[in-house]
Amino acid sequence: MRNIPLGALILGLAGLIPFVWGAATQYSPALAAASGLNPVWLGSYLSLTYGTVILSFMSGVLWGFATRAEGAQATAGYALSVIPALWAFFMVNGDPGAAAVNLAAGFAGVLVLDAAFVSWRLAPAWWLALRIPLTVVVLACLAVPILM
């Protein structure tokens, strides 16, 4: 984690807060009730809504990396970069448990795409050092609505 720019690390860690809060309030109804927050800011609703936004955001990040490529590699990069947003749009709906499974699969898939973009030297060398731990936390948080 030493080579990750501090700003990227801080923002990446801060981006985990809604996932952690959603999992905590899903796991503990007492915490959710004590918070006094509207249900849209709690539990699986928060986790799934925020996760859908972040999965779509990751499409934009990958698109940005694809701009560093040329020719066929650029075309492949652009095509691959839209998959997470389309996945979120079509697959994260319905039953919260099933939606969480699909969202978790989307985040796992983005990590595979991250590795591809790093191997193509389109993403920064430190990218996976940031993305792997963030993805592990996201997947752990999404396990709560899957298992409950």
What does this structure look like?
The chain has 148 residues and is mainly alpha-helical. It has one domain (6-147). It contains eight helices and no strands. It has helices at 6-14, 17-27, 29-35, 43-66, 71-81, 83-91, 96-119, 127-147. Helix 4 packs antiparallel against helix 5 and helix 6 runs antiparallel to helix 7 (96-119). The longest helix is centred in the middle third of the chain and has 24 residues, at 43-66. The radius of gyration is 16 Å and the shape is globular. The mean pLDDT is 97. The chain crosses the membrane at residues 46-65, 72-92, 98-118, 125-147. This is DUF3429 domain-containing protein. It comes from Neotabrizicola shimadae. Keywords: Membrane, Transmembrane, Transmembrane helix.
Helix content: over 70%
Mean pLDDT: 97
Profile the largest sheet.
Answer: none
Radius of gyration: 16 Å
Determine the N-to-C terminus distance.
33 Å
As for the number of domains, it is 1
Could you list the spans in which at least 5 consecutive residues all have pLDDT below 50?
Answer: none
Count of DSSP helices? Answer: 8
* Strand residue content: under 5%
SSE order, as H and E? HHHHHHHH
Look at the helices and sheets and give the structural class.
Answer: mainly alpha
Shape: globular
Number of strands: 0
Summarize the structure.
Helix content is 78%, strand content 0%. It has helices spanning 6-14, 17-27, 29-35, 43-66, 71-81, 83-91, 96-119, 127-147.
